[in-house]
Amino acid sequence: YPSGNLAIIVVREENRLTCIVQEDKASNAKIQAVFNSSGRSTCCYPTGAVWINMTIEGGQYLDQAGGRVRRWTWPNSAMSSGPQVPLKPIFISLNRHVGVRILGQDKITVSFLAMGQQAKFNVGTRVQVSDVGRLRPPARLGEDELLLLAFRVRILRLFDRLRGCLDFPSNEQWDKIKPPAYLTTQTSKILQLCTTPDISDKLRSSVRAIVN
């Protein structure tokens, strides 16, 4: 960024690439978007709520309350059981310098513009279809990724609880307030990811302790 703060990070891990967009802050910068070459990507609102979530099957566009605005499936998706819904081009601004353009599974661009200079990163990917016409299963999330997702949900729940405390100072009121539906859904999805056989009991217990 013009401030000198790091804006975009590209990390290579074996054959996978991950592109991370951070907000313009010197310390404790929030992650605003993550794009993975395995086909999983997420963009977030400045509040931390999920804005766009994409998998090897397709994606969905959410409002800040967690409600789905639209969804789509990729043309080569063989795993989706529902009707094929085409993508309508999406253009969003993560902040005043970074924008995201989504035109297709392999046509996703992160654009950075500052001081008259522009840089573009192609973060799209084309998932290969196997010889039996089915998509390969998505790559398993690593330990760090699962813990990061769990801590993110924990932080969002704490922020929501703090807002509840400010709105309802009486303990009898805010203790009864339930978290937003999108946080409950995200918690359930993370716990579901921990049910796979390749997740250790220690990691499973750690994730459950964080989100609960």
Automatic annotation (TrEMBL):
Pfam families: FAM194 (PF14977). InterPro entries: FAM194_C. Residues 1-177 form the FAM194 C-terminal domain. PANTHER family: GLUTAMATE RICH 6, SIMILAR TO CHROMOSOME 3 OPEN READING FRAME 20. This is ERIP6 protein. It comes from Nyctibius grandis (Great potoo).
